[in-house]
Write a structure and sequence with these properties.
single chain, alpha+beta, Deoxyribonuclease I, Chain A
């Protein structure tokens, strides 16, 4: 089986809380330019121009996603290349709730090999750290409820986690990589995140390092490569006035970052997360 390419991207629609958000035309263009087999979009919303956005994918991709259309609730959208994959017709979606993550899942079948695997997209909500931890646990517990133990899974998650170099293990107060790794191991998954100092939010090569977007796999899924990409910012300097940096500093008076990208604007303020995977029981993982 040839490798499977995926991308995950947070669209920064912030639930379309004021009913005025739009999806800029360049967003669909950049997804199509990335040309991955599968894409997962978090913080998606049904804006007034959503039909134009969805129609852009009609030739190449089939789409499924949550359709809660509830005020204060983000959606998750999954697209897969029609020429390569079929769906078995089943997908599961979490109901909208402040205590549950945003999440959608679909099972895909490779048309050439018949290989089957589950793809899910999820976003941990910006709530207290204890609830974020519980939501993440639900994401990785989900396969145990909705599939057989042997099944293959790739889950793309915007974890809304703390700095990557935080080593604390206090489950009640801290939500970071250390806690995430412990839950990942307990649930028999593997985490795949870009190495080095790059962050998926804030500034490129930011310190402290914020890696919020990750892949998690189970079964015979093996990772070949994973990386963050901010290439899309270069093609749109009118939007990304600070280049690959989504914020331009720290305000010592408010103790908050100052953003160059407005919340809910529809201009993505996360790097794209790219991954390449293969289904092979004997193949080693090449990425952490």
């Amino acid at each position: 089986m040839s490798s499977i390419t995926l991308m995950e991207w947070n669209l920064n629609l912030a639930t379309n809380y004021n009913g005025k958000s739009t999806i800029p035309g360049f967003v669909a263009e950049e997804i199509l330019k990335a040309d991955k087999d599968i894409f997962v979009l978090t913080e998606f919303a049904f804006t007034k121009d959503v039909d134009v956005f969805l129609d852009a994918f009609s030739e190449k991709y089939r789409l499924i996603g949550t359709q809660h259309r509830v005020k204060g609730q983000n959606e998750v959208l999954i697209g897969w290349r029609k020429s390569r994959f079929d769906s078995d017709g089943s997908w599961d979606l979490f109901a909208p709730s402040p205590d549950l993550p945003d999440m959608a899942r679909v099972k895909l079948i490779d048309k050439e090999t018949g290989e089957q695997f589950n793809v899910a997209g999820a976003r941990i909500k910006i709530v207290d750290y204890r609830t974020r931890r519980l939501q993440f646990r639900k994401v990785l517990h989900y396969p145990k409820i909705h599939s057989e133990e042997y099944e293959n899974w790739i889950i793309a998650v915007d974890c809304n986690c703390l700095r990557a170099d935080y080593k604390g293990q206090d489950f009640e107060k801290v939500w970071g990589i250390g806690v995430m790794n412990k839950i990942t191991s307990e649930k028999k998954f593997k985490r795949h995140s870009p190495s080095g100092n790059d962050s998926s939010i804030y500034k490129k090569n930011n310190y402290p390092i914020f890696k919020e977007d990750h892949f998690f796999t189970k079964g015979d899924i093996k990772c070949l490569n994973v990386e963050y990409s901010r290439e899309f910012t270069r093609a749109h300097p009118d939007v990304y006035i600070h280049g690959e940096d989504f914020n331009f500093g720290w305000n010592n008076n408010t103790h908050k970052p100052e953003w160059s990208i407005s919340c809910g604007s529809g201009n993505p303020d996360h790097a794209m997360l790219f991954g390449e995977f293969i289904i092979d029981v004997g193949y080693p993982d090449r990425c952490g």
